[in-house]
Amino acid sequence: MPPRRPDTHSETMDGTMKLLLRAVRGEIVPRPPVWFMRQAGRSLPEYRALRADVGMLESCRRPDLVCEITLQPVRRHQVDAAILFSDIVVPLQAAGIDLDIVAGTGPVVASPVRTMDDVTAIRPLDPTDVAFVDTAIRLLLAELAETETALIGFAGAPFTLASYLVEGGPSRHHAKTKALMYGAPDVWNALCARLAAITRTFLEVQIAAGVDAVQLFDSWAGSLSEADYRRFVLPHSKAVLDGLSVPKIHFGVGTGELLPAMAEAGADVVGVDWRTPLDVAASRVPGKVLQGNLDPCVLTAPWPVVASEARRVIAEGKKAPGHIFNLGHGVLPETDPDVLTRLVELIRNA
Amino acid sequence: MPPRRPDTHSETMDGTMKLLLRAVRGEIVPRPPVWFMRQAGRSLPEYRALRADVGMLESCRRPDLVCEITLQPVRRHQVDAAILFSDIVVPLQAAGIDLDIVAGTGPVVASPVRTMDDVTAIRPLDPTDVAFVDTAIRLLLAELAETETALIGFAGAPFTLASYLVEGGPSRHHAKTKALMYGAPDVWNALCARLAAITRTFLEVQIAAGVDAVQLFDSWAGSLSEADYRRFVLPHSKAVLDGLSVPKIHFGVGTGELLPAMAEAGADVVGVDWRTPLDVAASRVPGKVLQGNLDPCVLTAPWPVVASEARRVIAEGKKAPGHIFNLGHGVLPETDPDVLTRLVELIRNA
Predict the structure, then answer these.
(1) Per-residue pLDDT reduced to its tens digit, A247-293
(2) What is the mean pLDDT of residues A326-346?
(3) CA neighbours within 13 Å on the CB side: how many for B150?
(4) pLDDT value of position B3
């Protein structure tokens, strides 16, 4: 008799749920599942080779490349989850906004968004605009079908997307973004409402294609006070996450003071950067599963330091109802990938 | 009979202590004293005019310019404190390290410091190396003699100085700095010990010249976890601050989780950025006077928002044993200086 096929992608060959999804549900698991933000990317020579002649946004739009790049770190490191290779501005470009990702700079927007006219010119995302993501996910699920590897979908949150559109590119202080927020809250809210709708459609396409979970990245939310976050950002992130049918992870950098508010946006898992120890985070968002939070810079340290810091993170994570091991931010390009592989081994044996 | 002359610069004409110093001591004061980090700088047209043909480091080394630039915001805004116009790398250059401040980039170091040989090549600072600071402070004290304006001295903390030297310039992740810290703690500690000695000499020169208080800026400390801060940074900052004979303020950005550790470094006042409300900060460092913490970006907002946020900061500051009103980081160059003037008026009438 052939082995029973899993009913859904979220099940493994023996019919049990994948480790990552069990941890998300707060089930008792033998060890924390592990994956790394930006595990697919410049730390891998095979990624740099593949991207040598292909622009970032082009690589996100080609299903064959998305599939291959997403799988590279899974093959190498044996992580428990693949994360869809994409960029937070992909759905914005797909919705017709003129922007590019410039190497060494980041996203650059042709016409910054500052007025209500600019906002009303932003059209909704149609699922067909991102058909390439649907195709890529189906390719990926075929590759992952016989494995226990979960596939996580990916989108940027409204505040961070708005920041790129308002500033015209990356910025240190997000001063123009906050000026719009404080000075023209109607324009701000209209912009974030449109971005929330685009992000939600982008995630719904990924969920329909079969991802096991999604992560909403609000990279720059940590630049806000909790009062401003609650007033100007939380309702829009909530609109993205409310009622999505798969487990949701919500992450930002420098968000120690925002964790309770971010947890209210409706995610099942709250990501924590390395500044807030997981046991402290657990006391700020009681009942939430946590993800994180090894300082990516620790991966440049000698192995005994990496091992000791990883064990500290695992120990602190036990104070939460569930823990997905990850870094506290993305893998740095200069990271030695062999250290990541060894780190996964350590966690698999934890 | 002529009015009684104050015994020291720290007293006002009627013999009472200046408002800022009373707040530092936790005395009951009628309103919070107020000054702004980077109040002397690019937000002021008179500063931009003066600096049009003068490089940053040259302007820090010319006592006439230091005096004038330091006084500009005092004249304009009627703040309760002047802060010595300088830069954190001034004592490093004075001790013979080859570096420059490049407009639009920041400090750039000719030969990054990575080895024990690099560290032992750093010589101590001799007080005569910074005689220009002594001269500038004496000019300033003469100008401020008939006023209630306190004069605050200024230096960068060892971690932040080390970060510039190791990276060779500003950096986003401080990855090379942390790699040295984790990988060669003996080199790291030797470097920070030398930097602590330089910083301490720099502050002692300022104290001998007559400043009322000093602020130690650890701009990048917020990139560290508390465990790393305690292990690799706190002892060196403590060596700078221990036993200095004037009140000490200690500040970094994004240090919500570090406040208890930073408070242990020995300052009288802990500065707080806008991410941590002052009432929350007060509960993390009980018994400490706090400084801060209006988001500098709020100054771009319409006046009712500025006023309401300032009143929130004042109200939250009442939970601390003392509160010095300030921003949560430096004044942004694009700030309208009239808003700062109006903000000081609001606080003077609080």
Answers:
(1) 999 999 999 999 999 999 999 999 999 999 999 999 999 999 999 99
(2) 98
(3) 27
(4) 39
Return d(Cα B103, Cα B275) in angstroms, integer.
Answer: 28
Q: Are A314 and A294 in contact (CB under 8 A)?
A: no
Nearest to B301 among A179, A227, A257 (CB): A179
**Is A38 a catalytic site residue?**
yes
What is the structure's pLDDT at B305?
A: 96
Does A329 count as an annotated binding residue?
Answer: yes
pLDDT of residue B350: 85
Separation of alpha carbons B36 and A198, rounded Å: 40
pLDDT: is B7 or B39 the higher one? B39
B183/A296 Cβ within 8 A = no
**Assigned token pair, B74:** 């005092």
Mean pLDDT of B85-113: 95
Banded pLDDT at B1 (limits 50, 70, 90): very low
- What CATH number is associated with residue B20? 3.20.20.210
Task: Look up the domain containing B211 and give its range.
Answer: 7-348
Please report residues of A whose CB lies closer than 8 A to that of B257: 256, 275-277, 280
How far is residue A320's CA from residue B279's CA, in Å, rounded to a whole number? Answer: 26
**Residues from chain A contacting residue B220 (CB–CB below 8 Å):** none
**CA dist., res. B216 & res. B237, Å (int):** 9
User: How far from each other are the two terminal CA atoms of chain A, in whole angstroms?
Assistant: 35
- Please tell me the distance from the alpha carbon of residue B193 to that of residue B97, in angstroms, as a whole number: 16
Q: Is B223 helix (H, G, I), strand (E, B) or coil?
A: helix
Asked if B203 and B214 count as a contact pair (C-beta separation under 8 A), the reply is: yes
CB contact under 8 Å between B226 and A277, yes or no, is yes
So what's the pLDDT on residue A6? 44
A298 touches chain B (CB under 8 A): yes
Starting from the edge strand earliest in sequence, which strands make up the sheet with B323-327, in order?
A: B81-83, B150-156, B213-217, B248-251, B269-271, B289-294, B323-327
Q: Which residues contact A84 (CB under 8 A, 6 or more apart)?
A: A66, A70, A133, A136, A137, A140, A151, A152, A153, A154, A206, A211
Instruction: Name the region of B106 (left: φ>0; alpha: ψ -120 to 50; beta: rest).
Output: left
CA dihedral A84, A90, A91, A96 (to 10 degrees): -160
Q: Which candidate, B21, B17, B83, places its Cα nearest to that of B289?
A: B21
Q: Would strands B106-109 and B150-156 be described as parallel, antiparallel, or unpaired?
A: unpaired
Is the CB of B277 less than 8 angstroms away from the CB of A227?
yes
Mutation target vs A (from B295, B298, B306, B331; most A CBs, 10 A cutoff)? B295
Q: Is there a catalytic annotation at residue A51?
A: yes
Length of chain B: 350
**Would residue B328 count as lying in a domain?**
yes
Query: Hey, is the C-beta of B134 within 8 angstroms of any chain A C-beta?
Result: no
The minimal CB distance from A257 to the residues B276, B295, B312 is found for: B276
Does A226 lie at the interface with B, CB-CB under 8 angstroms? yes
Domain count, chain A: 1
Q: Please report which helix (H) or strand (E) contains residue A82, including its range.
A: strand A81-83
ipTM of the complex in this document: 0.91
Rounded Cα distance between A281 and A287, Å, is 11
- Asked whether residue A38 is domain-assigned, the answer is yes
Q: Is residue A1 part of a domain?
A: no
Residue B11: band (very low, low, confident or very high) from pLDDT cuts 50, 70, 90 = low
Q: Which two tokens stand for residue A64?
A: 């064959």
Name the DSSP letter for residue B149. Answer: -
Residue A233 has pLDDT above 80, yes or no: yes
Strand partners, B151: B82
Which pair of structure tokens corresponds to residue B232? 């690799």
| Residue A61 belongs to a domain | yes
Tens digit of pLDDT for each residue in A287-303?
999 999 999 999 999 99
Whether residue A313 contacts residue A24, with contact meaning beta carbons closer than 8 Å, is answered with no
